[in-house]
Here is the input.
Amino acid sequence: MSLSILPFSPMALPVWTYLFAAAPFITFALHRYLSSKYRAAVHVLVAQEKPTNFKKLAQIPGVWLPSSFKAPKVAPYADWSIETTRPLSYRPFRYGPKYFITMGLRKMAFDEWIELDNEFLSFHSQKAARIVERGDKCCHTNPDAFSAAYELLEELAEYLPSRYPSLFKRTSAGIDNIVTGESFNIVERPLIEDPMTMAARWVQDDLAIMIEGADGQYYLKAGSTLLTGFWRLQDKLGMSIDDIHLSGDVPGFKLKLQKGMNNFFTRIQPEGPMLRNNYFIQVDGELPWSSSIGSEDSKEGEFGWFTAQKDKPIESIYFRSERQSLRRLPKSGGVVFTIHTYFAPIMEIAKEPFVPGRLASAIRSWDTDVARYKGRDRYEKVLLEYLDKEHEKQVKAGLPLKNEEEIVSYPW
Here is the structure.
C-alpha cells in the first residue's frame, strides 16, 4: 500500500474583461463545489451511530473479542447510473513550498464506503482477465484470514444492493450482479473460489485485510490487488505494516509515520471508519501494472522507476490517484483496506481550473526522498513545463486565483 508555481500575472485590463473571461472557470468550479456539498448533504441525512473516539482496546494482542456493532443501513446513491455516473474528481495535492508527510486520515460516513461509477464494467473486465492470467499472485487468503474474508463478503453483500440497487440484488445465498448476469453464493463451503477473488469481482477497488498478530503488529493476510500499478501482493503477503512500508522505502516512515500508523491500527474500531487519498504520476496509460517501471514478472529489485524512460511526451503521462478506506470488521477484527484507483491523462485533468498550477507547485514541493519515491526525475522536465504553460493560459483567461479556497477544497 502506498502513502500515499510559478505565479503569473495577467495583463492590466478593465474589470469587466476579467469577469467575462473568468466566467467559464467560475461556472465549472461552482458546479464542483455544489456537487461536493450535495454529496456531503446526502451523507448527513443517513442515520448512523457517531464514531467513538480512537482508544487502545483492552484485549490480548492477536485475540479479537467480537463486537455487536452492525453497520447502519445505507441510502441509495442519488441518481447513480452505470452509463452516466462519472468518476469523482479527486485532486489530493496541495500548494508548496512544503510537502507534509502524514497519514492524511479523515472520518468516513458508512454510505461512502464503496464508490462505483461508469468505469465499473471496464474495471470488472480487466480484473476478470487478470484473475485468469495471474491467479493467486494477485488474489489470495491465508488460512488465518478466512473468517475475515468471509465477513468482508457478508458486509459487501449487505452494502452493495442498498447503495447501488440498479447494479446489485441481494439473494438468500449471496448477491447477483444485475448488469453482468453473475450470481455469487457466499453461503456454501467451500466457496467456488477464494473469497478475496470473489470480492474483487464486485467492486472497482483493490482489497486488503490486515490481521493482528500475537506480537501486536498487523499483518497483510489476504488481498485482491489486481490494479495496483506499482506493487505486487506476492511480495507483501504475510508482511507486517512496518515491513511493508520499510521494504517499499516509503519516505519518512520511520521518523513521521511508523508510531502513528501502528497506534491507528491498534485503536480503530468498527464504529469509526476512515478515509485517505494519495496521488502519483505514471508514464504510461496502463492501469493494472505500470510496465514503464519494468515487467510484472521481474524479480524484486529488478523493477522500479530506475527502469522508466526519461522525458516521455506529455501524451504518455498520467495522473493516478488512490482513494482508500479503512474499517475494522466487527466479528473477526480484521482491518479492511479498499483502494479505488482513479486514472486519467494529465492533459485531461490540466483542463480543470486551478489544477495545473496547484499540481506543479505540489510536485516542486517534494523533498529528495519523496521525489525519488515518486520518480520525479523521469518526467519533471516535460510535465512541469506543460503544467506551467497551462497554468499561464488559465491565469490570462481570468482564473480567479484569490478565490480558489472558496471554490474548491481538499481533496477535490
